[in-house]
Amino acid sequence: MQFVAEAPMRGYSRPDLTVRLLRFWTLTRCPNCTVVYRPDTAPLEVVAVLHGKRNIRRMLKQRP
Q1: How far is CA 59 from CA 3, 22, 47, in A?
Q2: Quick check: 37 and 27 in contact, CB under 8 A?
Q3: 37 membership: H or E segment, kind and range
Q4: Structure confidence by residue, pLDDT tens digits, 24-37
Q5: Are 45 and 38 in contact (CB under 8 A)?
Q6: From CA 6, how far away is CA 47, in angstroms rounded?
Q7: Residue 30 — φ and ψ, nearest 5°?
Q8: Which residues contact 33 (CB under 8 A, 6 or more apart)?
Q9: What's the CA angle centered on 11, arms 29 and 54, to 5 degrees?
Q10: How confident is the model at residue 53 (pLDDT cuts 50, 70, 90)?
């Protein structure tokens, strides 16, 4: 996460999943896991760490 925290825009946006200002970063060592975070916060706020088989859109709707 330090790698992403140093440049928060390294992640990618997913307008197909949410209209919120969130970025997504797939973990290199665990390609099925995605970190969802808010790039506009300091320190970086991780919203969720989700497995790719989950319904990510639904999971994000349940989180503030």
Answers
A1: 25, 13, 10
A2: no
A3: strand 33-38
A4: 999 888 889 999 99
A5: yes
A6: 17
A7: -140, 80
A8: 26, 27, 49, 50, 51, 52
A9: 60
A10: confident
